[in-house]
Amino acid sequence: MRSKVIGALSIAVAAVGLFAATAPALAQGKTITVWWGKGFYKSEDDALLETIKKFEAKTGIKVELSQYAIQDMIPKTVAALDSGTVPDVAYSDTYDVQAQGKWAYEGKLEDLSDIMLPMKDAFAPNTLEAALLYNDVTKKKSYYGFPLKQQSMHVQIWGDMLEKAGFKAADIPTKWEDYWTFWCDKVQPAIRKATGQRIYGVGQPMGVESTDSFQSFYTFMDAYHVKLVDDDGKLLVDDPKVRDGLIHALKDYTDTYIKGCTPPSSTTWKDPDNNVAFHNKTIVMTHNFTISIAAKWFEDSTNPALTDAQRAAGKQAYEQDIITASFPKAPDGSTIRYRSDVKTGLIFANAKNKAEGKQFISFLMQEDNVRPYIEGALGRWFPVTKASQASPFWQADRHRKAVWNQFTGGTAPFDFTKNWKFTILNNENVWAKAMNRVVSEKVPVDKAVDELIARIKQVAG
């Protein structure tokens, strides 16, 4: 998708002043190229386009926007870096997980401190910090990116299927072991008996090509308080307590499969597949790193292209049938502190129009612009700014409020923000490989964990 547009400005008063001083001299005749990941929903893309139009009208800077499928963004960007013809601004949902830390380390990213620091007070805790990365060329940390939105782990449950199995939401245990036993030993046989269908209690992502599998496994690690790196990115995997926690986490994760409580195909699932299984009602619950599952049904309920019956089904599913919930308590009874994946955009060090690109970012991050963009995703993304987090949007229904409760309860960053080499481990998906060693190759859990630790040390040590 290609369209043309324009931009500049800022979120905080200091940044507004900076824009006012520099815009007139920069604006005339300028064109910036912006590469952006295609949105999940039309309303998300529409909000971006509207912001670009406003930016163009205010500044006289023309914006050439190109949007690409998320899976294409990294290959296209790598090719652009290799050829030396990079866009002026780039955003992808995958940059932070797969590449940003590496590019910062190698000196390929522009330092955005001059626009991020004036906005600092506008950001919620544990958001701007995700862009504070180490540059091995300058030998220091700085803000090599701009936070735009974030996501975390949620559980999605078919409440009507739970009732058909003879249970209520209040029956779901909060203790760790009891929780997983409930879905496997109680709900699954009951729903199969009630329907005569081969329905599974759990949708457990385990595919090597699935980011859901490593994000979900991190939640299991966090349940056992596994800490792989310290705040400086130094590995802690030689600690016997870390190994023990990994063994417990991997055993719990793979036991669901071994007991036959997740579809056999879950070992090869890609990111959409647990969503599809849920939508098709072949599973009763799944854990997912956004509420995109519930949001799909909300979008159906408002989609004019669907029939009245389809819209009614969407409304019923979103407002009545689907439950958005949290994980149970950790095995020691504590509340799990969820990981937050803060999605970031970039300017490259060899971009041609860095000053104008920074103006575009500053304009985008103004509250009147960034809020419609985030809310256009229907709850799939959570804001990074304090003002947007306080928006009535997050109190409008039980799904969004569940997301708000989880984030405002406190989150923790992923390890790749502290040690960029974990992006390599995530790309390899060593976590899902360890799962498959256990369930497909019948390797003992402790051996699979030792192999996992060895690979972590080899890559990130």
List keywords for this structure.
461 residues; alpha/beta; D-Maltodextrin-Binding Protein, domain 2; globular
Compact description:
It contains 20 helices and 13 strands.
Task: Give structural notes.
- Its main location: periplasm.
- One of its GO terms (cellular component) is periplasmic space.
- InterPro entries: Bact_solute-bd_prot1, SBP.
- This protein is an alpha/beta fold.
- It has 2 domains: about 30-150 and about 340-405, Periplasmic binding protein-like II (D-Maltodextrin-Binding Protein, domain 2, 3-Layer(aba) Sandwich), CATH 3.40.190.10; about 155-335 and about 430-460, Periplasmic binding protein-like II (D-Maltodextrin-Binding Protein, domain 2).
- About 50% of the residues lie in helices and about 15% in strands.
- It contains 20 helices and 13 strands.
- It has helices spanning about 15-25, 40-60, 70-85, 95-100, 100-105, 115-120, 160-165, 175-195, 210-225, 240-260, 270-280, 290-300, 310-320, 355-365, 365-375, 385-390, 400-410, 420-430, 430-440, 445-460; strands at about 1-5, 30-35, 60-70, 90, 130-135, 140-145, 145-150, 155-160, 200-205, 285-290, 320-325, 340-345, 410-415.
- Strands 1, 2, 3, 4, 7, 12 and 13 form a 7-stranded mixed beta sheet that branches. A 4-stranded mixed beta sheet has the order 9-10-8-11.
- Strand 2 (about 30-35), helix 2 and strand 3 form a beta-alpha-beta unit.
- Helix 1 (about 15-25) crosses helix 14, helix 2 (about 40-60) runs antiparallel to helix 15 and helix 10 (about 240-260) packs across helix 19.
- The chain starts with a strand and ends with a helix.
- Mean pLDDT is about 95; it is low at about 1-25.
